[in-house]
Write a sequence for this structure.
């Protein structure tokens, strides 16, 4: 892992593999919650043919807590990293919140990516309405969670890092079709949680690229678990229908963590997609 200075922030970056067939940037999910580790774990095998670059976005993981925390700044951080580390066009993969940043990047810097790979994401903040409308029917899977906790995840009023960590652990059973509580505890114990950047990224509800999807020129693969609770399949279908020529992969028996639950299938689909 190395540190790269980008627009006043210090970003933690992992850079592996050789660019035999190109360079892939991995964008993790979680506003102020996630880091690069789960995306890198899932897609590390691609480093046999591709240069794979994963990083903690500003305000996340071990990168610095350096405002501004905006969707636009995070998309431009990716562009600055691309220029600093690669130079030419790249492949961009984004999961969940990282998929939102990837979509925004594709609209702001269309000439600098060849392929776009999206996992369990959404083209606008309006997906939150669908989640909140159906959450009561799903909470039986997470007996320590509440509707209020879900509302907090979508809000800018998380009290502190500790509250964010506790809510995250309580909600974890919702993310998987096969849930391992011991693994979730260990992962949550090691993760970094930043209420500061989480609240800032939820404070401005303006993210919406629905009217820009038709202008995206990168070859696009949209992957979604059929049981995804937080970025419902309707959102992936909307993205795939809106981007010209996009391919949709809906994976049965998988939830938001489809890249982990059905890893072999997802990797095979990505390799075939990039080969074409």
């Amino acid at each position: 892992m190395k540190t790269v200075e980008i627009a006043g922030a210090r970003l933690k970056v992992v850079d592996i593999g050789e660019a035999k067939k190109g360079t892939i940037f991995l964008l993790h999910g979680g506003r102020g919650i996630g880091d690069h580790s789960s995306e890198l774990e899932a897609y590390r095998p691609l480093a046999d043919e591709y240069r794979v670059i994963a990083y903690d976005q500003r305000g996340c993981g071990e990168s610095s807590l350096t405002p501004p925390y905006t969707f636009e700044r995070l998309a431009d951080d990716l562009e600055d990293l691309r220029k600093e580390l690669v130079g030419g066009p790249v492949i961009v993969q984004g999961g969940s919140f990282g998929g939102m940043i990837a979509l925004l990047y594709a609209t702001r810097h269309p000439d600098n990516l060849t392929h776009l790979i999206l996992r369990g994401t959404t083209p606008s903040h309006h997906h939150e309405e669908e989640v909140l409308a159906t959450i009561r029917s799903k909470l039986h899977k997470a007996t320590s969670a509440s509707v209020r906790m879900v509302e907090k995840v979508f809000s800018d009023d998380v009290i502190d890092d500790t509250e964010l960590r506790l809510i995250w652990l309580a909600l974890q059973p919702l993310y998987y079709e096969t849930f391992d509580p011991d693994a979730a505890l260990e992962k949550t114990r090691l993760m970094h949680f930043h209420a500061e950047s989480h609240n800032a990224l939820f404070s401005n509800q303006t993210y919406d690229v629905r009217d820009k999807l038709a202008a995206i020129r990168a070859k696009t693969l949209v992957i979604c678990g059929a049981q995804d609770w937080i970025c419902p399949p309707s959102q992936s279908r909307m993205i795939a229908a809106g981007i010209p020529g996009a391919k949709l992969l809906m994976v049965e028996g998988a939830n938001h963590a489809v890249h982990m639950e059905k890893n072999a299938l997802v990797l095979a689909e990505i390799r075939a997609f990039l080969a074409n």
User: Anything to note?
Assistant: The beta strands are 2-6, 9-16, 23-27, 51-55, 90-95, 113-119, 219-225, 247-251. The CA atoms of residues 35 and 61 lie 5 Å apart. Residues 71-85 form the longest helix (15 residues). The mean pLDDT is 97.
